[in-house]
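Appendix B, example 12.
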Amino acid sequence: MKGKNKLFVIGIDGATFDVMRPLLKNGKMPVIKGLMDEGVYGELDSVTNMISPSAWTSFMTGKNPGKHGIYEFFEREKNNYNIKFINSKERRSASIWRMLSDSGFQVGVVNLPMTYPAEKVNGFLIAGLESPGVEAKGFTYPEGLYDELVKNCGRYIMEPGVTSHVMAGNLDEAEEILYESIENRMLTTKYLMNKYNWDIFMSVFRETDPAQHCFWRFFDKNSPEYTESPYGRVVPNVYCRIDNAIGKILEELPQDTSVMVVSDHGFGFRQHGNQCLNNWLEGVGLLRFEDKKRDGFLGLLYRQIEKRFKRKTKERLARIFPYLRNKVQSKMLFSKIDWGHTKAFADGIREGIYINLKGREPLGIVGETEYEEIRNEIIRLLKETREPYTNELIVEDVFKREEVYHGDSLFKAPDLIIRWKPDKWIKGMLLPSGRIITPYFPTEEHKTISGDHRLKGIFIVKGDGIRKGIEIKNSRIIDITPTILYMMGQPVPSDMDGKVITEIFHNIDAVKWKISQGAAEMDRETDSTMSYDKEEEESVRKRLRDLGYVE
């Protein structure tokens, strides 16, 4: 089958079999069910931190974040404790779209996160949600493609902005824009795949991610925050509408096209452990706050603006006062930490803990000899920590960064990465002293979000040479690029961390024998000239904050 067929890849951001299984059983996702019956399927392990930019970049490079350099939508600035938003120019590894383009294949990519600015490919590319906006320079390649899409498909929806509607109490509007976005993605995809030549095409439906972030508590009866509501229909409806949209796309594909479906991570109820971390670190004597009134006047003002003003008004204020807003958000992110008396800290959003290391951090106080002692002590204490209201242990594991990542960009990773027990709701953390630590939510968005990422995504593939009706185990998101390269008849670079998923093919032994190793690809130089200007950064910051990815 190598090199014969076209390959169509469908991304469903945050899709999980936990939601899909009852829908499949009840005949409500017939298109996906047909792909599973005629192909191979299984859960897909995400990257360790389970974050979209990191996971989708590993998907498109076959490498762990320590090599490709993308851990988040943002990264720490040098010489201070602030953050900066990043894009694909910070990626150190070639994407599969670049590799296949260089080999003469025609590619098409729509709405894949961490692809802004759109790279020059042998085909076309529409960038993802980290773009400053649909009219930004570099949003599409070729450059005039956006105008063509608007002319032929109507308004292009890059990201539906669900959280802002939910915060404002406009749940009906949030639901409707999710459905409109799915329809828009389907129409755009059909237009592009029918007009342009391609050998491999990928289109990403992102609507599952914001729907689950915002509507999980209405849907999941096992969630500790479950609230009976007619809006419990939203999450399953989004899955079913995406299934229907995929069906309309598949109807127009050439008959011999292979089809692959992937998600970057799974989903479950929000646990709130990350929002406890800085208070917990203070409680065990590793962090100190300057002032217990952590928000201050500006923080309180910021909360009221977020809660009371509509999205357009907030965006206008952000453009008028960008520096003030950045200053307030930076202060809220690290919440008035006294760095001179702090040995470890977190950002309050993710599962990572940083050591305030002397010589690395601008106000570091931890020496190299103490570094390992502190990491080990934090690991021990976290593994012994219990939820105060259930008295149950809440931490499944704590990884040192070098245990799960490796490569030239390891230095960007948190020093420790926590994996909470996936079935535990963390209303607080119990200190050895008996004191109860509760979550801290700097902004209104985080009070809105009730669903969050889990490790297990989905993987489905159907086509010539693929086994039928088989469930496989232990596939990983870093394995997708090597598998696609093999399916397209290309060698797999020797420095990829992922492997060809041989279990999906007939005659596995023959497949293993045919896999060829290519030379290691050269690391890309990062390009700071394509960083965001102030207005672009505010646009990206607003979109990511709406999704709960930043404060």
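Confidence is low (pLDDT under 50) at residues 318-331. The domain at 24-269+453-546 is CATH 3.40.720.10 (Alkaline Phosphatase, subunit A).
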